[in-house]
Write a structure and sequence with these properties.
By secondary structure, the chain is an alpha/beta fold. 45% of the residues lie in helices and 15% in strands. The protein is built from 18 helices and eleven strands. The protein has helices at 4-16, 45-53, 57-65, 75-81, 83-86, 93-100, 103-116, 139-150, 154-161, 181-195, 213-222, 233-245, 284-294, 321-327, 336-345, 357-373, 375-382, 384-402, and strands spanning 23-25, 31-32, 39-42, 69-72, 203-207, 225-230, 252-256, 267-273, 295-308, 349-355, 406-414. The strands form two sheets. Strands 7-6-5-8-9-11-10 form a seven-stranded mixed β-sheet. A four-stranded mixed β-sheet has the order 2-1-3-4. Helix 10 packs across helix 11 (213-222) and helix 17 crosses helix 18. It is elongated and about 75 Å long. Residues 87-94 have low confidence and may be disordered. Residues 156-417 form the Polyketide synthase-like methyltransferase domain.
Amino acid sequence: MPDVASRLKGHVEQLIGAPLSVRVRAWDGSQAGPPDAPILVVRNRRALRHLVRKPGELGLARAWVAGDLTVEGDLYAALDALAGLVWERGEDARTLAQALRDPAFRSAARGLLALAGPPLPPAPPPEEVRRPRRGLHTKHSDRRAISHHYDVGNDFYEIVLGPSMVYSCAYWPAPPPPGTLEQAQHDKLELVARKLALRPGQRLLDVGCGWGSMAIHAARDHGVSVVGVTLSREQAAYARKRVADEGLTDRVDIRVQDYRDVSDGPYDAVSSIGMAEHVGSERYLEYATALHRLLKPGGRLLNHQIARRPQRDETSYRVDSFIDAYVFPDGELAPLGTTVSLLERSGFEVRDVESIREHYALTLRRWVENLTDGWDRAVSLAGPGRARVWLLYMAASALAFERNRIGVNQVLAVRTPEPGTSGLPLRARTWN
């Protein structure tokens, strides 16, 4: 009888209908596959039981987070090789039903069941969010989702993000980075400030202010007064300390507040950097309208947001199961065109769109490097399961940006007053 690795590799190839271009090492020590490929290590039968319980991406993620499945060698190469299994097949019930009509698929499924063994499938790892998908994007559910993602511990995020403590796409020089992550993050904050034309004496609302980096940059380097809002109490406490350390408490107010509750406008400018992904499609027009209302006539919005590729049938869009369960509960990505349309419907004039997709891939690779360099401390702070979540999510996301599965865009919009004077330069991208 073939060894476990050969049987496992054969069954998986039958299921996905394609060669598996990684090497497989099974719990019995056997190996199968290309000798120079990254190694997918299946440490025990429990890894297969996760897949039996939840075929597809979520089952693989559970096995990874639980430590039953891991990779030796180049993680990026392994994820790229597994893209057909992880990203492109999906978990749609109709697709599974069609596959089950194929005798070869049923035979492979029975083979995996036999290898998995008789015990009941294991429970999901404790890092998985389990809640009904109803009542999405209420103020209560948004607080809970933000807390799951951001209240992991500021010390953990210091390891991943580095001294800048900016959790969004950096802005790298061309040609690609000889520079540091910290400089690239500074350049991104400065780019936002220049697009908003920040000047001393103005008021800026920073929606989803994170650990306070944009608020501090705007107040310290551009002389504006800033209100930063976040739903994370840990973020707010950290940001307030940074503000105090910079001597900016007279110009920066960090609040634990929902953007829907901000009522002390008008503001000269609004920055929303990496926050709108949490809003959700059902609430996006409400989000855009609220920011439009908070701006003065002539005020500018800089909306920095991840976008997905549009689908032929948008009703078939499903939130990524791993990201939803482990990383950004209730987060949603929209195509760029949808975002621009909703901003326009809320009353904004969209003046500029800049795609910086490749910049996010470079940023994520630096974050992965930071995490792996500080792995032991990260595990001691957040636990091995949570550290594995962040490693998988950031490495897979880097590849998704590189392969144009997702993108990120800065959209500059203006609350243009009735006479039609936008206040922007005649030539785009001079930002003055």
